[in-house]
Amino acid sequence: MPRSTPPALVLPAVxxxxxxxxxxxxxxxSASADSAAVEQVAVAWxxxxxGSLLPYVKAAISPPKPAAAPDAATLVRxxxxxxxxxxxxxGSAIDGMEAAGPAPVDGGDEVVRKLRSSLETMxxxxxxxxxxxxxxxITDRQQLQREVPAAVESVERLASxxxxxxxxxxxxxxxxxxxxxxxxxxxxxxxxx
Length: 193
What we know:
By secondary structure, the chain is an all-alpha fold. The protein is built from 8 helices and no strands. The chain has helices at 11-19, 33-60, 72-99, 108-134, 141-156, 166-170, 172-180, 182-190. The radius of gyration is 19 Å and the shape is elongated. It starts with 10 loop residues before the first helix and ends with a helix.
C-alpha cells in the first residue's frame, strides 16, 4: 500500500493556481472605454476557463488518504473512485474550455491549447491508473503492494511536468483578467492561494 497521501497528485491545482488570482502583473496608464470593454470580455472568457477547471481542481486536490482506509478493499475502492472522478472532470474541463470559444486577447488561444494538452495527458494518466487499480486482486497481498503504488506513481509523475499556465503570467491582459475572474478566485481559495 502507498506510504502516504501522494502530494504530487495536486499538480492540477498548481497548474490551475497559475490561472488564478496569484498573478501580479500591472499595467501603467489609464484605460479607455474601448480597452475597458475588451478587459471585461477578457475577464468573462478567463472566468469561463477557470469555471471549467474548478470541478477538476476540486477532484484532483482531494486524493484518498491511504492511512485513513480501514482495509485494502476500501483503499482500492476510494482510489478507483477518485481516479474516475479526476479523469471525468478533466474531460469536462476540456469540453468547458472548448465551449468558451476563441480567446479575446492575443496569446490566449495558445495558453488554452497548452492547458488542453496537459489535461489530456492527465486524463490519460488517471485512466491508466484507474484501469490498473481495477485489476488489483485485493486478496493477493503481493499484488496489492506492487500495483497500488505503481498506479499512484504513474499519476505522481505528472508533478514533474512544467505548467503550461506559466504563459498566462507573461500576458498582462490574461493576468489581469485572472485576478478579477470569480472562477479563478474560487480556484485560488480551493488550493489555499
